[in-house]
Each structure stands twice: as C-alpha cells, then as structure tokens.
Amino acid sequence: MSALTAAEPARALARAKVNLFLHVRGRRPDGRHTLESLAVFPDVGDVVTAEPSAARSLSLSGPFAIGLGAGDDNLALRAVEALGEALGERRGLALHLEKRLPIASGIGGGSADAAAALRLALRVWGRTISSSALAHVALGLGADVPVCLSSEPAVMGGVGETLTAAPAPPPCWMVLVNPGQPLSTAAVFAALDRRDNPPGPRTPARFADVGALVSWLATTRNDLEAPARRLAPSIGAALGALRWTPGCLLARMSGSGATCFGLFADEAAATDAAAAIRNREPAWWVAPAQVSARADETV
C-alpha cells in the first residue's frame, strides 16, 4: 500500500449504524453489558477527510459540529493516536469531520467516525495491519467501532467484539428520525429494569424480501427502548410519527436512542414519509436512506 501525496486527500463516508434489534443479555463483572444485535448501515453518515500533515489534528464542520470537541477527547482523533501507537507511526495526519449525524443519538456516529479515521490513516500513511490487530485497536475505542470498520451488515455479540456476517438485507429503504434530544448511553443502561433478557430467534440464512425481514424482526425487540422512552418521552412521538406514516412496515428505536427508524419497501415511500414528517416536525432531524448489502465510501 503506497501513501497518498499531499495533493490527494482521502475521503470516506462514515455510515450510520442502525440496530434493527438489540437484546441485552447480561452484565459482565467489569460492568460492560453483553448484547445481541443485527446492525445495518444505510447510505447516510458523516464525511471524514484525511491528508498528510506535520501534526495530528482535527477540524470540524457540518450541522452538528456545534458542541462537538476537536481535542483529544474526540473519538476520531483518539483513533488516529491509538493506531499510530500500535504501528509505531510518528507521522502526522490532518483530519476533517463534516458532522452530518446527530450527536449521542444511538446510530453510532462517533464510532463510525473513529472507524473511518482508522481506515483513512492506513491509506494516507501507506501502512498495513492485520485484521485482528486492527479489531483490537477498534475495540479499545468503543464497543461499536469494530462493526463500523467494514460498515456491512453483521450480527453483534458479546460487548461488540463478536461479529458474524449477516444475511444481505433485501432491497428496502428506511427513514431515520431524531427528535433532537441527546441521550446518554450510560443513563439508558442504568435505567434498565432487567439485564438478563431472553435470547432472540436465530438469524435466518437469507430474507426473501422486505416482508420476510419485517416478519422476522417482529419476533425481536430493542431492550433499551423502554428505559430510553422513560428518559426521553419524545422518542414515543418519533415512533408514533413513523408508524402513522403510509408505507411504514416497522418502526423501532436504534441502539440506545433517541434516533428511531422506519422500514419502507421502496425509495418513493421513504422519501414521501420523510417529507411528511419534516413538514409536521421541522425541528427534527429526518433522513431517508437506502439499506445496502455492501458499503462503499462514496461521498
């Protein structure tokens, strides 16, 4: 792998991670929760750019950059530092993050940014690393970072370190809705009534169509939805807005919230639904997006 020149900045789409279901199965002695989840990556996300630099830095832009720090606590910058330490790499890297996804919203925005930063740093530095070593670096940054490395459908287990390839989702679209209320993941887990919930059904080898996917998802759940709704009642409003929109096949909260998603059979139904919800709730973040079987970094 050859390093990019200064005239060739590298760019990546840091796709949102949507949990189609999320089962909380237990709590380890270290306090981390074990989970079961099916993650997919619609074609909406932040944009991360990287180019060679004498120092390691991060700049921000985008509608959700306000309130997001660009210092050492930013997960994307921490990712570059962690990778540099693992590789013994001393060169700098200038990152730019165009923050398009809401912050603290249950769709893995920070984790996706960190994963994109890892991929871009390897490209810009012209370095390689084993998949196991890269996964170790990613898991040290957060439970959702490993699955965001490939941004392809996966069944998640453990605390996020156990990943199994998931069946390709059938052609479908989703509408993401965030009512504008950031939600702390730690607070949602703390509000759980039960941490040893039953397992879900076995993931099928394939889904014949979106109807089959929706029927199967109806047998699953998001164990974090009830505590999240108690902390942020606006989640109920977002779910209601989706469920009452024509063409919505299933509506559920993603991750620890507050972003919710609705599944739709096609682009026309999804874009019409997104427009209707925006008209009713102009302060909400609403985004229609295609659910893809394979991710790319096209921006």
Number of strands: 12
Mean pLDDT: 94
Q: Supply the helix-strand structural class.
A: alpha+beta
**What is the CATH topology descriptor of the largest domain?**
Ribosomal Protein S5, domain 2
What's the N-to-C terminus distance? 22 Å
Q: How much helicity do the residues have? A: 25-40%
Describe this entry's structure for a reader.
This protein has 299 residues and is of the alpha+beta class. It has two domains: 155 residues, Ribosomal Protein S5, domain 2, CATH 3.30.230.10; 125 residues, Alpha-Beta Plaits (2-Layer Sandwich). Helix content is 31%, strand content 25%. It contains nine helices and twelve strands. The chain has a four-stranded mixed β-sheet with strand order 1-4-6-5, covered by helices on one side. It has a four-stranded antiparallel β-sheet with strand order 2-3-7-8, with no helix packed on it. Strand 5, helix 1 and strand 6 form a beta-alpha-beta unit. Helix 1 runs antiparallel to helix 3. The radius of gyration is 19 Å and the shape is globular. The two termini are 22 Å apart.
